[in-house]
């Protein structure tokens, strides 16, 4: 997962700058790129948790972003490939942050933000102070394109996302780009044109980007959230979802409590019926002896041995006649215990 | 895709095993429980099981186990399900308190600074609109914090991350429980 994303990133960079050695420490960059970034523990588990391979997550973002991307001066910078954007891949962000320590060759009013890909689809109105590409695409594009070309040669190595959003209706502070006081190792943010470049706002922006990246992930997680725009609405949906899930847990536990026989709270019988459905989710109630030899439950068989004591099943077949209902499921249940097959066989025959 | 299926399936199975283990402990511990007691036992075992799948790496799982372990009887159950004793939860809570004050004061300063700048830059209406939006978001985050166990002291970033993890775990829990419930019903009905 990680190396593959790395490779594409490398291609992107070399494609942009054509491997110009005139830039600062380009070999270092290559070394940095090729060195496998130690993914922070949280990120690797995070992406695994999401069960989204990084390229897939990337793809999600690319698709969502290509819709929003409307930079008019694109032909001028045609050699920039459509942004391979990995902002929500935390490992990559971490990787990218290594570049933040590289000093810039030149100061320019052209500033790009690494993670501001969401600017064209803002999640909340709060981000007004950030540049909004939609608001001002035309006026500044000719002037910008020159600067873009100039700065591109110097800055491609630090640019992961070609951010086209320029802000010129705000108070323009065309001050020099400052390698911001961004100390966080995970997010690399560059001040955009006209924006304050002091460390506070940079840190603030980095924080916002982080939050937005994770909100996007959450949006993908919760069904029906992708179309919603606006953090408040998305949060609404998320809250709704969590509440639903929690109430479902309550409901199901009640249901289970009601379904087990009143006189005997024995989960074994339920497990027998259930594990069949876990296996292939087809027919929970049909347990024929043919199920018995198949110990196909992945890992259940070896781990279940110590759990389900044979003796524990005795009360089930005790004097209670209602318990006879569960004899059939119990037989299949016993199948998971391969070491006690002989006992199971005797049970089966005794039925 | 296959990796994805494998991961969730193994998670489900792990949860299921631990849950069954907990149920066993309960049934051995107390015979003839009423329906409400049974429901409580089921839910508790399920919660402990799903929290233990995270191995205390997430805050919500730690908080959940801590809350459950407050009851002495449950503590035994918890310790039996977990392979190692639960000492981490104490440390976690201490860490929370010390950090939150510093973070809060820093946030207040930053917020005031930001509002000044924004008030200068943007028109008056824009400021108000954005502040309203912020208020909405803040309300929602408060609600979310109350929902996710252990979410009270977290900052937004980790809150979102915890929510994600929590949602996934809840889904696993609901899925397994639903199957078990339907299977149990099916078997009771058919016989």
From TrEMBL, chain A:
Keyword set, alphabetical order: Nucleus, Transcription, Transcription regulation
Compartment annotation: Nucleus
Region (Disordered): 127-176
Cellular component, GO annotation: nucleus
Pfam families named in the record: HLH (PF00010)
Transcription regulation among keywords: yes
Alphabetized Gene3D superfamilies for the sequence: Helix-loop-helix DNA-binding domain
GO terms of molecular function: DNA-binding transcription factor activity; protein dimerization activity
The organism's place on the tree of life at top rank: Eukaryota
Transcription regulation among keywords: yes
Stretches with biased composition (Polar residues): 133-144
Domain BHLH: start-end pairs: 195-245
Name the UniProt record assigns to this protein: BHLH domain-containing protein
Species this chain originates from: Fraxinus pennsylvanica
Automatic annotation (TrEMBL), chain B:
Pfam families named among the record's database cross-references: IBH1_N
Listed GO MF terms: protein dimerization activity
Keyword match Transcription regulation: yes
Entry annotated with the keyword Transferase: no
Protein name, UniProt field: IBH1-like N-terminal domain-containing protein
Annotated localization: Nucleus
Alphabetized UniProt keyword annotations: Nucleus, Transcription, Transcription regulation
Top-level taxon of the source organism: Eukaryota
Occurrences of domain IBH1-like N-terminal (ranges): 9-71
GO biological process, any: regulation of DNA-templated transcription
Principal localisation: nucleus
Gene Ontology cellular component annotations, sorted alphabetically: nucleus
